[in-house]
Amino acid sequence: MTRTRLYLKLVVIILLAAAAFYIVLPIGSKISLKPIGINFEKQYELKLGLDLQGGTHLVYEGDLKGIPEDARTEAMSSARDVIERRVNAFGVSEPLVQVSGQNRLIIELPGITNIDAAIDQIGQTPFMEFREENPNPKAAEINEDGEVVLDAADAFLATGLTGKEFERAALQFHPTSGQPQISLQFNSEGTKKFAEITQRNVNKRVAIFLDGAILSAPVVQSAITNGEAVITGQFTVNEAKELVTRLNSGALPVPIKLIQQQNVGASLGQSSIDHSLTAGIIGMVLIALFMMVYYRLPGLLATAALIIYAALTLAVFKILGVTLSLAGIAGFILSIGMAVDANILIFERLKEELKRGKSLDRAVEEGFDRAWLSIRDSNFSSLITTFILGYFGTSIIRGFAITLSIGILVSMFTAIILSRTFLRILVRFNSFSNQRLYGVKRHA
Question: CB-based contacts of 231: which residues, under 8 Å, 6+ apart?
Fold first, then answer.
């Protein structure tokens, strides 16, 4: 490689490292170069998971009794999507909503320490369904006026048409009375179901239930095939607006019940961060000492490359918006060890070539070339494992896999590009030509 290309590569590395440190370190939020009119701000933040930031952990159980066996998985996935949209609407940073098992939903809300407020945010999500008259009600009561009164839940049967097939809601006013009412528009599947329901219930009532309570039960005059329905009731304008907002933010396809709640304190999260940071610093110092004592000058260069590696990796975490949890920190620390492994392989090959009598510059080239295949194969094997963990694992395992895979990719860059460039430049100077500086002793 020519001297010009080598130094150009060094300049690129320095600029890349400077950008990484600028993103990672809290050295200010704005850079202004007024003479040339350049202004830009640093807006990247390291996102912390629930176990580090503190927040609320909720577990809900879905009631799948009225859902066919083959449709339950899809129903829970739809419920997850609805709740995710709802918590996003409240501005929660990096919420986690996932299905666990067959009928449970796990919800993690970082930064939300008020459990009651979090439960309200989730619990206000309405469950809407359409029911048809039950031709054989089980029981009836007679009120004081002698009228036969049926329990609403028993008087109507489930039709399978729920908020899952609902597309949007809008506030309207009755053209005659001026009372607020809510118009509903179904999707294509809901339109088909609603047409079938109204067709078989002409001159019968079809009831609209919200969270188990009946809103209205109009008599069907004729089949409705345009996929539109209207909810009427004793609404005020504000109540109707609120209901429209709730419906549009997510009508649950299945009812859910809170079965577990937990508050993770921010102090516990900060303690975890402090311990992880201490462990990382101690590990880096011990690794640096080992590399410099055993490999001398290459070890010193590897330490510099390792510091740049850590900055680059954290910068990638910030740029990609990776949510860092305790498991993610473990993956990052493990990737540091793998980055060191790559340098050890390279330097051992370098020492072997020097012991064989190769010149220093030739030993550097052959050392890297011979070590590359081992580094490539081991890292690719690890990447395959992280992809499997990320795809099939839970959120905790997925966080570990993401940080480890990013760390592996960055470590391949720092080991092959950074360390190699540093060594190529140093071997050009006679001051660094003594083989003792590379951990090799000359034999008489």
Answer: 181, 182, 183, 184, 208, 215, 216
